[in-house]
Amino acid sequence: MNIHIWIQHKNVPEFSFNDENTKRFQKFLPDAYIKNYKDSESFKKDLKFADIVLIWVFKQQWFDLAPKLKWLATPAAGKDFFTVTLPQGVIKTHGSFHGIIMAETVIGMMLSFSRGILKSYELKDKISWPDKELSPYMNTLRGSNLLIIGFGSIGSHIAKLAKAFGMKVTGVKKNMIDKPAFFDNNDAIILPDKLDDALTVADHIVLVLPGEESATNIINDKNIKLMKKNACIYNVGRGNAIDEDSLVKNLQDGNLKGAFLDVFKKEPLPADSLIRTCPNLYFMPHASAISPNYMDLFIDDFLEKYKVWITKYS
User: Fold this and answer.
1) Are 56 and 76 in contact (CB under 8 A)?
2) For the domain 99-283, what is the CATH superfamily, name and number?
C-alpha cells in the first residue's frame, strides 16, 4: 500500500505534516510504503504510484496523474474546503477530530465573557483598580443556557464539555436525533423551525455550521433582536452563517453583550472591516482548531477509517 502525504501550511506549523508525524504514522502501518512530501512538484511526480493520498487540497487534473488512487483523505472538517469530481472507485474523507480541540476554544471564549476576563483586560489601562466597573460583567457559565446551531461532531464535543460547567444545552440539527447520553432532562435537540424560540432564552449562541447556501445569514438582524441583551454569539463554523453588518450594528447599539468570531465571510479579514473596531466584538484568524497535537489527532482519525476501509479493500 503506497500512502503519499503532502500536507503543508505556509503559516501554521501545526497544520503541516512533519517527520515526527511520519515516523508515528509508519509505526502504526509498518507494512505500508509511506512518503511525506514537502513540495508539490515531487508529490505530483510520484502520484502514479499512490494508492492513498493525504492532502489539504487536490486539484481535479491531478487524477490523470494518479491511475492507482483509491482514497483522498484531508484533515479539513469542512466539506467545502475543496471540491472535486471523484473518478469511479475513489473515495474522499474529511477529518472528524476537530471537536476535541475546538470545544476547548469555545469554552474559553464563553468563559472570557462570562467571567469578565475580556472586560478586565479592556479596563486595565483605564482604571487602576476596576473592581466596581468589572462587577456587572461577572457571571457564571453554570446554570446558563447554551444554544448550539449545527449539532454535528464538533457541536457535540462542545456540548459535552459545556455540561461539565453545568450549562443547559439545546442543539439545533436539520434532522432529529436522539439526545446524547450526556444530556439530562433539561437539555434538548430541536429542528431549525424552533430556532427563533430558542434564541429568546439563550445566553450563549454558538454556530458550527457548514458553508452551505441554506446556512447563509441564519443569524440576521431579525433574530438578533429576539436575543437577550446579555447574550453572546460565537462562530466557529463558516463565516456565511452571520449577517456581519447586522451583528456589528446591534453590538454598536448595545443590543448584545458581545460576539467572538473565528470565521468570516471574507478571509483574511479585510483591514478596513468594521469587525476590527466594533465594541465587544473579538476575533481569531480561523484558528480555533490549532493545537500541537493536531496531526496526531488526524493520524488517529485516519487510522480508524483505515481499519474499516482496508477490510473492504482486501
Assistant:
1) yes
2) NAD(P)-binding Rossmann-like Domain (3.40.50.720)
Asked if 24 is an active-site residue, the reply is no
Number of neighbours of residue 257 by Cβ within 10 angstroms: 21
Query: Sheet holding 91-94: strands in order across?
Result: 33-36, 2-6, 52-55, 71-74, 91-94
Query: Which residue of the set 20, 267, 276, 304 is catalytic?
Result: 267
Residue 81: count other Cβ atoms within 10 Å of its Cβ.
14
pLDDT band at 81 (very low <50, low <70, confident <90, very high): confident
Tens of pLDDT, residues 108-129: 999 999 999 999 999 999 999 9
Active site residue 238: yes
286 is catalytic: yes
- For residue 14, pLDDT beyond 90: yes
Strands (E), 127-269: 145-149, 168-172, 188-190, 204-207, 232-235, 258-261
The residue annotated as part of the active site, out of 4, 98, 204, 286, is 286
Q: Which CATH architecture has domain 2-94+291-313?
A: 3-Layer(aba) Sandwich (3.40)
Q: Which residues pair with 169 in a beta bridge?
A: 146
pLDDT for the residue numbered 311: 87
pTM for the whole structure: 0.96
Residue-range domain boundaries for the chain: 2-94+291-313, 99-283
State the catalytic residue, choosing from 4, 98, 157, 238. 238
314 pLDDT tier (thresholds 50, 70, 90): low
